[in-house]
Design goal:
The chain has helices at residues 3-30, 37-55, 58-70, 76-93, 96-118, 122-143, 149-154, 163-185, 201-215, 252-269, 286-300, 304-317, 326-333, 350-366, 374-386, 412-431, 435-440, 445-454, 464-472, 479-492; strands at 222-226, 232-236, 239-244. The chain is mostly helical. It is globular, with a radius of gyration of 23 Å. The structure holds zinc ion. Residues 260, 264, 290, 293 line the site of zinc ion.
């Protein structure tokens, strides 16, 4: 065996421990009775401790060094070893005591945040949030950074991306986005009442599953189940799971939610088979991952072409929609509305919600904003970006789970995913101009094959920036996204 093969064999145990933990988490969200909670927390802690010990062991360090010394610097092997070295460096940066304290703090925070949100009272959450912020400041120091402490947090989720990059990208499209949302919100109200009526759950599931399988979600290597918060998880290239949340009287969450999660899942299923069982399989960054989910959910799933093919089938499944025209349907599913909750935001307003969180996280990390001033700062920016003011903390600063989970530096990846989705789709279109016609005939393999070859098969081999450079010849850029949004919504709204 070569040193590289020995290294991968060593990692197999690590990958298996991670997969076992993922199975336990999947079960926790989809099947586990409430009584299982304490036992499950212990089992997950055990697996995570074993994984961490193995990952940060002397053996890993020695095998990494041997593989690095043996690899031709220009080879794929050297690139893979560098990715694993980066993982290793990251895992060894945090002292065990810090990890334990943070884990405990997060476990305690979740309940406090949930109660504060339920009672819409930020003051209950503020003291523990202040402790979490202190931990995040420490985490940034452990991770290390050149310019801004936020860099230290950001790179945990988006390799190779800096705070300055995100600032430049967000500044580059904020004004145009605010102006677009302003124009659209002055148009006559869109009627989407037909989406809010009783829809049988089994039929919702059957229809959405049929669509995502036609997209290319492979159910011989995948499963769909129900959970409160939809997610995608992977136990390997050949076993990728998605979940869905159903409403009895609203069609969108299950239908578009399933397209979204299937977009993530097809990325996971698309890693080259030789990467299976190695830490090099799967998505290269959260931003690129989100580009895949957004591409299928929005660019394909909310397009007029797609529904020219799919609407007759949906109407057959739900005869109550028989009298809704294609034009009215497409307008309804693309309704732009200024609203308070990020997860319910439409394509046009979404990135503004993210910019607000990015601004606040940056300033809270440096101490420029104090924790107790967050509601005021939140509401002020909300008014500035979205033109409305949250009526209470539950619909404002308390809405997201991320901070209570110790996740700071994560939000920008959602917005980057939106931008990348259009850049990648445009590249696919340039290579295969027939894609829109194919989609309008229910044919998705031209698009999926392009994504497989250019993105999926590489797994974690390239960073988001490298991948984008290879595909577009340039950097992550907001202009294609803004062009897409303006073209799409001006057409839908007849402007
Ligand atoms: Zn997603």
């Amino acid at each position: 065996m070569t040193p590289y093969q020995t290294l991968l064999q060593h990692y197999r145990t690590l990958v298996d421990l991670r997969a076992a933990a993922s199975v336990l988490r999947w079960d926790q969200q989809t099947q586990m009775p409430p009584g299982g909670a304490a036992g499950r927390a212990r089992q997950l802690a055990t697996l995570s401790r074993m994984e961490h010990e193995l990952h940060t062991s002397e053996t890993t360090a020695r095998l990494l060094e041997a593989a690095r010394d043996a690899a031709d610097p220009a080879s794929d092997e050297a690139r893979a070893v560098a990715v694993l070295q980066e993982d290793y460096d990251r895992a060894t940066r945090f002292p065990a005591a810090f990890v334990a304290e943070l884990t405990q703090l997060v476990a305690m925070s979740h309940g406090i945040w949930a109660k504060a949100r339920a009672e819409s009272d930020f003051s209950q959450f503020a003291p523990v949030l202040a402790q979490l912020v202190a931990k995040m400041q420490q985490a940034a120091e452990y991770m290390g950074y050149d310019e801004h402490p936020y860099d230290g947090l950001l790179k945990r989720y988006e390799r190779g991306m800096t705070t300055a990059d995100v600032t430049r990208i967000f500044d580059g499209h904020r004004a145009r986005l605010v102006a677009l949302v302003d124009t659209l919100s002055r148009q006559p109200q869109v009627d989407d009442s037909f989406l809010h009526q009783p829809f049988d759950r089994d039929k919702q599931r059957a229809f959405a599953l049929d669509i995502v399988q036609k997209f290319g979600f492979d159910m011989s290597r995948g499963v769909q189940a129900v959970s409160v918060h939809p997610f995608c998880t992977s136990f390997g290239v050949n076993d990728v799971r998605i979940t869905t949340r159903f409403y009895d009287d609203f069609l969108n969450p299950a239908l578009f939610g399933m397209m979204h999660e299937a977009g993530h899942a097809m990325y996971e299923q698309g890693s080259a088979q030789e990467l299976d069982g190695t830490p090099l399989a799967g998505g290269t960054s959260l931003g690129v991952h989100e580009s895949q989910s957004r591409l299928w959910e929005n660019i394909v799933g909310r397009s007029a072409g797609f529904w020219s093919w799919a609407l007759p089938q949906l109407q057959q499944t739900f005869p109550q929609l028989a009298r809704v025209s294609l034009e009215a349907f497409v307008k309804g599913i693309n309704k732009v509305q200024r609203s308070f909750i990020r997860v319910e935001a439409d394509e046009a307003t979404y990135n503004l919600h993210i910019m607000l969180r990015f601004d606040l996280e940056k300033d809270i990390l440096t101490g420029k904003i104090r924790v107790q001033d967050l509601p005021k700062e939140w509401n002020g920016r909300f008014e500035e970006y979205l033109g409305i003011t949250p009526p209470d903390d539950a619909q404002g600063v308390l809405q997201d789970v991320h901070w209570s989970s110790g996740l700071m530096g994560y939000f920008p990846t959602y917005a980057l995913g939106n931008l990348l989705s259009v850049q990648y789709y445009n590249a696919a279109l340039a290579a295969h101009p027939s894609i829109p016609d194919d989609i309008a005939q229910g044919k998705f393999d031209t698009l999926l094959d392009w994504l497989r070859v250019n993105i999926h098969q590489h797994g974690r081999k390239y960073t988001a920036a490298e991948l984008t450079q290879r595909i577009t010849g340039g950097d992550i850029d907001s202009t294609p996204y803004m062009d897409y949004l303006e073209r799409k919504f001006k057409s839908i709204y007849g402007l």
